[in-house]
Amino acid sequence: METEYQGYFDHDKLDKIIYNLLSNAAKYTTENKTITITQAYHREQNLFQISISNPGEPIPESKLKHLFERFYEGEYRKFHTIGTGIGLSLTKDLTLLHHGQIKVESDKENGNTFTVLIPINKEAYSKEEIDEENKSHETIESNIPQETTDHSSANAIQTFPTHNANKEKPSLLLVEDNDDLRNVMRRILTDHFDLTEASCGKTALLQLEDKNIDIIVSDVMMPGMNGFELCKKIKEKFETKHIPVILLTAKTSDMDRIEGYEAGADGYICKPLNISVLLAKIDNLLKKSESHNGNSKKQLIFEAKHVDYTSQDEEFLKKAVECVNAHLSDVDFDTLTFVKEMQMSRSTLNEKLKQLTDMTPLAFISSIRLQAAFRLLEEKKKIRVSELAYSVGFNDPKYFSQCFKKKFGFLPKEYTTNKEYDKE
């Protein structure tokens, strides 16, 4: 007899937990052997249980307590059947995020059994974790014939930092040479990010040339170009230096940390990896990046000579502003001329202006010209609208007036009239 039970759980996270445990079991089960999956519901504790067992060499008692902490390191991982890799570490993180627990039992008679217990009652989760609008009605079926009086609606549980659903997913570049680790992390990260992958530093640099990336997560120990070297190259290049970089490494000494930060890393996370810590760090860096960009837009000053520039971004803005100001009255000064004067490709100029000012090159030129027109209105007692338009590079006074009103909320003529009225 089968009884259907409904409860609160995150079906996506549960899917990942089961997938990782099955992958681990399949990898270390020999041919013609059987993997067993069992499930149960503990009514008194409101706990759903799933167990996955596979025959194979038992795990030594001394290794069991470290099993979920290991990160593909140690001689045991290399020469024995049972792996102690990232998959189990991430599985534990997912289980803990679900307010559950995971345990393992190992002996010669029964093989190796991994058991996950997660609460499915509403009271186990905070209001912030429950999405009442997602009535997915996922069900948990138990082969234990018990009755229940509480058939709560199944709802999605929000366990990870989330971004505005109306916005596109942030783009993340994952650089990792270990295929197994990269596959596991892909399943975790693709829910939250537009993921791009690279198996080495050289490939990562090529990916950065072709795609707009918001944040980079890279392993340190890689053949060829290691993570420190990759980070240094990213931070030395003007087009990519603004992208936050998080380094993942088993090297935990103070000198290793110093080397990471000297390379320009924005975050340094030691293995064994805690996925919730990684996601929180990514979320924090993305928010800082958005805030920085927002402040850059607000603080964009067109009279560059009055600002003390120190960073490369500020130097870029200074050069861009001075370039437009030098051609302020030139009606033929357009985007192509701007690109040529800045001595960079059109795509690079467009990307940097978009990142720092949220403007296209054409909008940037227009904004500087309108700011200059506003200053002229303040400085001169009387000036004709046509004269004002021509002096800042507009060849159509009517179009100039429309643009001016759109930016400042009033027509140039209205501002002049108000000035005269204020003086009376």
Topology:
Elements: E1 3-6, H1 11-27, E2 36-42, E3 47-54, H2 61-64, H3 75-79, H4 86-97, E4 101-107, E5 111-119, E6 130-131, E7 139-142, E8 156-157, E9 171-175, H5 179-189, E10 194-198, H6 201-210, E11 215-219, H7 227-236, E12 245-249, H8 254-262, E13 267-270, H9 275-298, H10 312-326, H11 335-342, H12 346-357, H13 361-379, H14 385-391, H15 397-408, H16 412-423
Parallel strand pairs: 9-10, 9-11, 11-12, 12-13
Antiparallel strand pairs: 1-7, 2-3, 3-5, 4-5, 6-8
Helix pairs in contact: 1-4, 6-7, 14-15
Keywords: Phosphoprotein, Transcription, Transcription regulation
Domain Histidine kinase: 10-122
Catalytic activity: ATP + protein L-histidine = ADP + protein N-phospho-L-histidine
Indicate the structural class. alpha/beta
Give average pLDDT, whole number.
Answer: 77
- Classify the oligomer: single chain
Q: How many individual β-strands?
A: 13
CATH fold group of the largest domain: Heat Shock Protein 90
Order of helices and strands: EHEEHHHEEEEEEHEHEHEHEHHHHHHHH
Individual helix count: 16
Span between N and C termini?
93 Å
> How large is the share of residues in beta strands?
15-25%
Largest sheet: 5 strands, parallel
Instruction: Please identify, by name, the CATH architecture of the largest domain.
Output: 2-Layer Sandwich
Any idea what the radius of gyration is?
30 Å
At the fourth CATH level, what is the homologous superfamily of the largest domain? Answer: Histidine kinase-like ATPase, C-terminal domain
Largest sheet strand order:
10-9-11-12-13
- Overall, the morphology is elongated
Integer tally of domains: 3
- Provide the low-confidence segments as ranges: 70-84, 135-165, 294-310, 420-424
Q: What share of residues is helical?
A: 40-55%
Write down the CATH class of the largest domain: Alpha Beta
